[in-house]
Amino acid sequence: MTMLTIMSFTNISKVGEHGIPLLITTAPYDISSATITCGGCIFNDGGSPIIKRGVCWSTSQYPTIYTANILYATRVDDFTLCINSLEANTNYYVRAFATNFSGTAYGRQIMTTTMSSVNFNNKTQRFEMPAVLKGEDIRSVNPEKVRWPV
After folding, report:
1. CATH T-level fold of 14-115
2. Which of the four, 31, 42, 66, 124, has the lowest number of CB atoms within 10 Å?
3. 133 CB-near residues (< 8 Å, 6+ apart)
């Protein structure tokens, strides 16, 4: 038995010359309890100048520039943005967008979760990973040198 895989692209016939832009959403990183850093890369402008570009995000799937929060970018082809004032321990759906005279195109939606907050003495503190621990093997870190954010 032969299996056939069909990939679906929104408005693929319009991508390229005199159509909508072609872009991707870059993977989120530097995720904290209140921020997410992500962006996009525009591979093709669709045959007309890019008017707007950026990232849209929401706690609901498939955010759009009409239904979600938006952060605009100023760089032309690839861009990185820091989304601020997010809720701790919450799932967010992010995707890059680019608009030209033919319309708006979106990169793939990516779901990411902000880090948790910690409650000390009835005060909620946002939990941030100390810089010395980011990307390091915890077994190789000297605990006396770790400085936790205050």
Report:
1. Immunoglobulin-like (2.60.40)
2. 66
3. 141, 146
